[in-house]
Design a protein that fits this description.
Blueprint: H1 12-18, E1 41-47, E2 53-58, E3 64-65, E4 69-74, E5 77-80, E6 86-88, E7 92-93, E8 98-102, E9 110-116, E10 127-133, E11 143-146, E12 150-152, E13 165-168, E14 178-181, E15 196-205, E16 209-215, E17 233-239, E18 245-252, E19 258-262, E20 267-268, E21 270-271, E22 274-275, E23 278-279, E24 284-288, E25 318-321, E26 328-335, E27 340-347, E28 359-367, H2 385-391, H3 395-402, E29 424-428, H4 448-454, H5 458-466, E30 471-473, E31 485-493, E32 497-503, E33 510-514, E34 519-520, E35 538-542, E36 576-577, E37 580-583, E38 589-592, E39 610-616
Antiparallel strand pairs: 1-2, 1-13, 2-8, 3-7, 4-5, 4-9, 6-8, 9-10, 11-12, 13-14, 15-31, 15-39, 16-28, 17-27, 18-19, 18-20, 18-28, 19-24, 21-22, 23-26, 24-25, 26-27, 29-30, 29-32, 32-33, 32-34, 33-35, 35-36, 37-38
């Protein structure tokens, strides 16, 4: 039979007396319910923190009617099973049958007795099972509750996870026969083996477009326009940090749809840790946009930029010339004090030259991955490159890059350039995420601080493993940058939800995670889900453990700190979403997204740094 768990503030004797009827001394003589035989109706599982339920089980060999059984919580608190709301099962219990009822239970210290009485009262002589849970008092070893019924054991600890239960192992009468169950099995046998599904999970660092800047006013002019003269130029200033690439596009206006641009990989602004400056003209090509046939009679009229040519038979974007150094000089300068780069594009041929060259307004993009404007050999993407290539008009392309969502935050521009730390994923079926709670302080030994400050996923892995939850560390043991993935395999019981955590490494204590409700891995029919829908409710969180410094520049941030766990403690210790980010890396200024959205191209707009994909195997 079962064991006793923790003490209420009153003694066992007081509890039993309080639950008795002083006017009735009826003794149950049914050997199935008392005496030297083990009771056939027992308490089997109880949850008292977040979802209050009691499960009754028939461990006998015959069908039993438990409508006359009572639960008792203490003085004057009697509850007839027949009058309680049944979650599952009925008061007629077949062998191995289960009845689950709702009962408001104390969250910290409590005790619950199960009684059988034919006259409608719960008498001390008629108790057939009892369990106590809590954190106070000392164990009551070998205390006889009543003759030949059962013996009191130790206290069962209070559960440490909201929504968890305490569960009987099916035999014995001591505290070791009860344990915390983080994945309650109400309505199922405690040793029920839940079907599982193995999932492949990919967390992708999708950071890409970091800034978009229109250039349209020549250096010797006060108004926007083209550069038709020899040695005329455009100069564009921008901020960037290591890891960023530069790309630009400007029309060669004495054509139908030709334009100057670097190769798809862009120009690396740092090489071997050193800033790149000087003449980079050798990296610039002349391209055909594949949108309009070359016909001198229909070449665009600058600056009006009207297009009148026939569609190109070959719609692929392809190289016209690989050496344009006689037409265009491309130079980079850098000021370390202000952290500004200057890109200068100089027309070397001019409209009257042997190969007429007219530079038009265009667009500069700072990016982290390749091919921000186009992919060589493929057709135009239809988002605005054609406007520059045919008419020297960067407006449509700029608007595409800088488009915002419903909250006013960017749809495509990433907030910052950062790697992700090795991550942890896990599954649970409690009401709330077991690793962290938004609005609460990070739990000691949970590993949240270690992930959020130093990218250390080991502590969280051990913590979640200790709760008996499915958990996995990323196959990758070093940080992953833009275009790279963290990959996992995890086996999950049907009905579980998904959670994850990875550090945004260029911060003091920010981490990316799913919201506290968890992502349902299975539909209502128990079928596993697939796809990247899990990205939608992923957010950027501040762990509340360390004072925040400018993203990418803090001396106490992981890439620059002298040792782990270095930094001033945060005065606001609650875990909260990051609703505002000041982009000092690329000079975009304050980016505001109230929910702290991190997934790419979310309708609300956000930081655009992550995509999470789940695939059932």
């Amino acid at each position: 039979m079962k064991k006793l768990n923790l003490l209420l503030v009153f003694t066992i004797a007081a509890f039993l007396m309080a639950c008795s009827n002083d006017d009735d001394n009826t003794t149950i003589t049914d050997p199935n319910d008392q005496g030297t035989a083990e009771a056939s109706i027992i308490l089997n599982e109880i949850s008292f923190l977040g979802s209050d339920r009691v499960e009754i089980k028939n461990i006998g060999t015959t069908t039993r009617d438990v409508s006359g059984y009572w639960l008792c919580l203490g003085p004057g608190q009697y509850f007839n099973l027949a009058n309680l709301t049944a979650v599952s099962g009925s008061t007629t219990l077949d062998p191995e049958g289960l009845l689950v009822v709702e009962l408001n239970l104390p969250d910290t210290d409590g005790g619950l007795g199960l009684y059988k009485n034919n006259d409608g009262f719960a008498d001390a002589n008629n108790i057939i099972d009892f369990v106590q849970w809590g954190t106070g008092g000392s164990p009551r070893e070998n205390v006889a509750v009543t003759a030949n019924i059962w013996t009191v054991g130790d206290f069962v600890p209070v559960v440490s996870v909201a929504g968890a239960s305490i569960e009987f192992d099916g035999e014995g009468n001591s505290s070791t026969d009860w344990s915390q169950e983080n994945n309650p099995s109400f309505g199922e046998q405690n040793d029920f083996v839940t079907p599982t599904t193995t999932f492949s999970v990919t967390i992708s660092n999708v950071t890409n477009y970091l800034n978009a800047i229109v250039f349209n006013t020549p250096n010797d002019a006060t108004n926007p326009g083209p550069v038709p003269t020899v040695n005329g130029s455009y100069s564009i200033q921008f901020k960037a940090v290591p890891g960023a690439k530069l790309n630009f596009v400007t029309m060669s206006a004495a054509t139908n749809d030709w334009f100057f641009a670097p190769l798809g990989g862009g120009i690396n602004l740092w090489e071997n840790g050193n800033v790149v400056t000087g003449d980079v003209s050798s990296q610039i090509y002349l391209w055909d946009a594949g949108t309009e046939e070359e016909d001198p009679t229909t070449i665009a009229t600058v600056p009006d930029g009207e297009t009148a040519g026939d569609p190109d038979d070959d719609t692929s974007i392809r190289v016209v010339e690989t050496d344009v150094t006689s037409y265009l000089r491309t130079e980079l300068a850098y000021d370390a004090a202000s952290r500004y780069f200057t890109l200068t594009l100089t027309n070397l041929m001019g409209a009257a030259g042997s190969v007429p060259t007219v530079l038009t307004p265009g667009l500069v993009v700072l990016h982290a991955q390749n091919n921000p404007f186009f992919t060589s050999g493929q057709s135009d993407r239809g988002v605005g490159l054609k406007g520059i290539a045919e008419a020297g008009n960067p407006t449509e392309l700029y608007n595409w890059f800088s488009e915002t969502g419903a909250s006013g935050a960017p749809l495509r521009l990433s907030s910052s350039l950062s790697v992700f730390s090795p991550a942890v994923i896990y599954a649970f079926n409690t009401a709330s995420d077991p690793l962290f709670s938004q609005g609460s302080v990070a739990m000691p030994n949970s590993g949240v601080e270690e992930i959020a400050e130093d990218g250390n996923n080991q502590i969280a892995y051990e913590y979640l493993s200790g709760l008996g939850l499915p958990v996995a560390k990323s196959n990758e043991t070093t940080p992953v940058g833009p275009g790279q993935d963290l990959t996992f395999t995890i086996e999950v019981p049907v009905g579980y939800k998904f959670g994850y955590s990875t550090m945004l490494v260029q911060t003091n204590d920010w981490f990316i995670a799913y919201n506290n409700s968890g992502y349902e891995l299975f539909d209502e029919n128990g079928n596993p889900k697939n796809g990247d829908e899990v990205s939608i409710k992923s957010y950027l969180y501040d762990a509340g453990t360390e004072v925040d410094q400018a993203v990418g520049f803090g001396v106490d941030q992981a890439p620059r700190q002298s040792e782990p766990n270095t930094g001033i403690a945060d005065s606001n210790t609650t875990i909260r979403r990051v609703s505002e980010l000041d982009d000092q890396q690329f000079g975009k200024g304050i980016i505001t997204t109230g929910p702290g959205v991190v997934n790419l191209e979310d309708d609300r707009g956000g930081y655009n740094v992550v995509k999470v994909t789940i695939q059932a195997q």
